[in-house]
Design goal:
- With 406 residues, the protein is mainly α.
- The protein has a domain of 80 residues.
- The chain is 41% helix and 9% strand.
- The strands form three sheets. It has a three-stranded parallel sheet with strand order 1-2-5.
- The radius of gyration is 25 Å and the shape is globular.
Length: 406
């Protein structure tokens, strides 16, 4: 937002990449953007950076896509299909010592017509399949950490990627519209024996909760299929780890809704209660949605409607849904038996509601505000809706009583 920054500060920001010395009136011809990373900066930060033992760089810049939710088109407006990274890696080795891994921050390497050349450059630097590093012979890793475009992943390209120690294979699943391309890409990764797949799932933009659930469920089903194949000797045990990511508008000036309401933007098909419920689930999981089917069904429900019923629950009900030793079961029916009594009652009442009562409940809870819920309850006639609103108003006492053994 260069204009906004100028209006606030009187300073005109330099936009795009520093690929032209005249942009900041340099007195030399150095291309700043092509300089190797300055690892001395890492000594100044108050935390341990994860990639200190890795070369950092780019083999391409920008992206051919213009997704409206993505910032790449803003800060890397032109697609650069090839950057020779070899010189920068050699220079880093001279200045800071040899590094074990290679972290590439390309935003769409698969779009490059020089893709094969990029992979050959990586191999020439010593990052080939099975390569090791140092006296301890630790396995080397290459990570395109901004992800690969599923729509551009062909069999020829995955074969080329299999020549380097790529781990994980990061593939986004931003929209259910890309389902076929995504599933095809994941199957190719499994076929060529990549064991770890990292999957980003955008939500709260144009998607519905049903879309979100389906994308997660596709990954769970693929995981199960791949694990069964491995048990039967038909390939490696590929695991997909999903990372749901909430959409925030690019023009939000703060992540704090109190400072900028745009930070709390709610997608057309979402509401505050759904988003809060999902946040509670994800906070318990601490980030990734694990590949196991049992864990997924407990966390997100057996179908999209059950997931929405879970998201509508009070926070404490979501957090304390299960009885002790819940992992000890053998069938889907055992899932229900593992719910705490107040959750079983919530689910029973939810599924008894007609369409109009369901919409009434969602409308009241969508505010995620206890005062508003208390006020709205006065005009509710349906006994099941009333009871479910009471659960929100008294959740703390109900959960405390249950946890106390009563």
């Amino acid at each position: 937002m260069p204009d906004e920054i100028f209006n606030e500060t009187g300073i005109q920001p330099v936009t795009g990449l520093l690929t032209d010395p005249t942009k900041i009136n340099q007195d030399d011809n150095v291309i700043i953007d092509s300089l190797p990373a300055d690892y001395d900066i890492l000594k100044q930060v108050p935390f341990k950076y994860s990639y200190t033992d890795a070369y950092l760089g780019y083999t391409t810049r920008g992206c051919i896509r213009r997704c409206d939710f993505c910032a790449v088109r803003k800060f890397e407006p032109e697609y650069v299909p090839y950057i020779d990274i070899k010189g920068a890696v050699v220079e880093v080795g001279k200045l800071y010592g040899e590094k074990r891994d290679l972290i590439l921050m390309d935003n769409n390497v698969l779009a490059s017509q020089y893709f094969d050349k990029v992979i050959n450059d990586i191999k020439a630097l010593g990052f080939y399949k099975g390569s090791t590093f140092g006296k301890t012979r630790k396995r080397r890793i290459v990570d395109f950490n901004q992800g690969l475009d599923a729509r551009l992943l062909t069999e020829e390209k995955i074969m080329k990627l299999a020549e380097i120690p790529l781990d994980p294979v990061r593939i986004a699943f931003d929209s259910i519209k890309s389902k076929d391309a995504y599933v095809k890409a994941v199957r190719l990764a499994h076929k060529y024996e990549f064991k770890n797949l990292s999957n980003y799932i955008l939500f709260n933009e144009k998607d519905t909760p049903e879309d979100f659930y389906e994308r997660l469920r596709i990954n769970v089903d693929l995981n199960e299929e791949f694990h069964k194949d491995a048990e039967q000797g038909k390939g490696v045990k590929t695991a997909i780890y999903s990372f749901p990511m909430k959409f925030t508008p690019l023009d939000a000036k703060s992540r704090n809704p109190k400072e900028d309401p745009r930070a709390d933007l709610i997608g057309e098909h979402w509401n505050k209660r759904y988003l809060r419920g999902l946040q509670v689930i994800l906070s318990v999981m601490r980030g990734p949605v694990m590949p196991g089917r049992t864990f997924f069904l407990q966390a997100f429900g057996r179908d999209a409607d059950e997931m929405k019923a879970i998201l509508l629950m009070p926070d404490l009900f979501i957090r304390y849904r299960l009885i002790k030793n819940w992992k000890k079961f053998k069938s889907d029916k055992d899932l229900v038996r593992n719910w705490a009594p107040y959750v079983r009652d919530w689910m029973k009442r939810y599924h008894l509601l007609g369409e109009s009562e369901t919409q009434e409940l969602i409308k009241i809870l969508s505010t995620n505000n206890l005062s508003a819920i208390k006020e709205a309850k006065k005009s509710v006639s349906n006994k099941d809706v009333k009871k479910m609103l009471d659960y929100h108003l008294n959740a703390e006492a109900i959960v405390a009583k249950y946890k106390g053994g009563k």
